[in-house]
Amino acid sequence: MLSRIVIVSANALKGSGPLGAGLVQASRSLHTTSQSLAPVPPLPEKGGKVRHGIFPEEIFQLLYPKTGVTGPYMLGTGLLLYMLSKEIYIINHETFAALSMGAIIVYGAKKFGPSVAAFADKLNEDKVAKAQEVKDVAMASLAQAVEDEKKEQWRVEGRSMIFDAKRNNVAMLLETNYRERLHMVTNEVKRRLDYQIALQDLHRRMEQEHMIKWVEKSVVGSITPQQEKESIAKCITDLKALAKTTQATA
Known about the structure:
This protein is an all-alpha fold. The protein is built from 6 helices and 2 strands; from the N terminus they run H-H-E-E-H-H-H-H. The chain has helices spanning 2-15, 17-32, 57-67, 71-85, 93-222, 225-249, and strands at residues 50-51, 55-56. A two-stranded antiparallel sheet has the order 1-2. The termini are far apart. 0% of the residues are buried.
C-alpha cells in the first residue's frame, strides 16, 4: 500500500508540468546550452528560507499547486515509510548514533551558532573593509591617472596654440630684423649723401673764398698810391660833411 502511494506520487510529480520542466531546464542549463559560458552570479550573503532546518522553502512552494499544503509532508512521510517497509533503509545502532550526533550538532548550532556567526561576520567585514580600502586606493590612483591623462590631452590640444604663438614670435623677430637692417641701410645711405653734400659745400666755399681773395688781391693790386690818397681825402671830406649835418640837425 505504501509502495503504491509512493509510486503514484512519483508518477504524479514526474508528469507535473513545472517540476518536469524545471528538471529538463536544469539539465539543459548545466550540460547542453551556452549558458555554462556565462559569468557565474555572485553567491548570496544569506541562505534561502528552510523548514525544519534542512528542507528548502522552494520545494514546498513547488508542490503546493499540485498537492496542497499537506502534500510535501505526505510525500516525505510516504518516502520514509516506503524505504522502511522495503528495508531500503534499516534502523540499527548507526541510526541512533546519527540521531545523537545530529542532536548534538543542532544543539551546538543553536547554542554557539550566533557567536560563531558574529565572529565569522566580523572576520568577513574586516576582509571586506581591507578589500574596499585596496579598491578605494586603486580607484583613487586610477581617477588620478584619468585626470592626468585628461590634463595631458588638454596640453596636447593647446600645443597647436603654442606653435602658432611661436610662429608669430619668429615672424615678428624676422620683421624686426628686417626693419632694423632697413633702418641701418637708410642711415648709411643718408650719411653718405650728407658726406657728399658737405663735400660739395666745402668745395663751393673754398672756391668762393679763393675767388674773394683773388678779387680783393686784384682790386688792391690795381689801386695806385695816388688813387689811394685821393680816396682817403674823399673819405675825410665826406666824414666832415656828415659831422656838420649831424650837428645842424641836433
